[in-house]
Amino acid sequence: xxxxxxxxxxxxxxxxxxxxxxxxxxxxxxxxxxxxxxxxxxxxxxxxxxxxxxxxxxxxxxxxxxxxxxxxxxxxxxxxxxxxxxxxxxxxxxxxxxxxxxxxxxxxxxxxxxxxxxxxxxxxxxxxxxxxxxxxxxxxxxxxxxxxxxxxxxxxxxxxxxxxxxxxxxxxxxxxxxxxxxxxxxxxxxxxx
Length: 193
Ligand SMILES: CC(C)(COP(=O)(O)OP(=O)(O)OC[C@H]1O[C@@H](n2cnc3c(N)ncnc32)[C@H](O)[C@@H]1OP(=O)(O)O)[C@@H](O)C(=O)NCCC(=O)NCCS
Hints:
Elements: H1 9-13, E1 32-34, H2 41-53, H3 62-67, E2 72-77, E3 80-91, E4 94-102, H4 111-125, E5 130-135, H5 138-143, E6 147-149, H6 155-160, E7 174-179, H7 183-189
Parallel strand pairs: 4-5
Antiparallel strand pairs: 1-2, 2-3, 3-4, 5-7, 6-7
């Protein structure tokens, strides 16, 4: 890891560590992360459907995917689509990381971390104060710098989506957040800043 990736305890408390990808345990994955092409949306849906059938993510209808395609990043290698994630903006200071899936045969090679790092980077660019996920894999998000919170810390989400869900209020998903430093603080973290 190069020096600029080193995280101090002070960084951690400010959320600067969120989305720092480091896991290449299963061998560095050679693919790239980029925005999806419209011609890839059907394959994107198939990947989400497979994870949704296993109860891991919410299913997304094709029209919804086209409408929100700009929320997404995909991992692509010479085998095609290998992973996806979306950053969905809720309001002025809040966005959700959702639809995170890595193809089963590619898991454990750091692709999930890289996908989350990509959306966190976008959230930083957009100066979004808080990014959250509702998840059954809190350990994964902890590894990406998120911390666990009570769902009452996300009243907008609970009001907008959760309260209409058939699992509400007994849902077993855990709320994880990553609070991003305000832009001025981020500038101070830059070398020579
Ligand atoms: C969760 C998921 C996206 C992780 O992708 P991945 O590419 O395998 O993850 P990474 O290789 O980047 O792993 C990063 C770290 O998280 C840990 N991790 C990954 N998946 C995990 C899981 N299911 N449970 C616990 N820890 C997990 C890894 O061990 C690794 O930590 P390490 O560096 O200490 O070994 C992938 O398992 C997946 O697609 N799961 C099904 C869909 C899902 O549950 N999505 C999340 C919905 S919120």
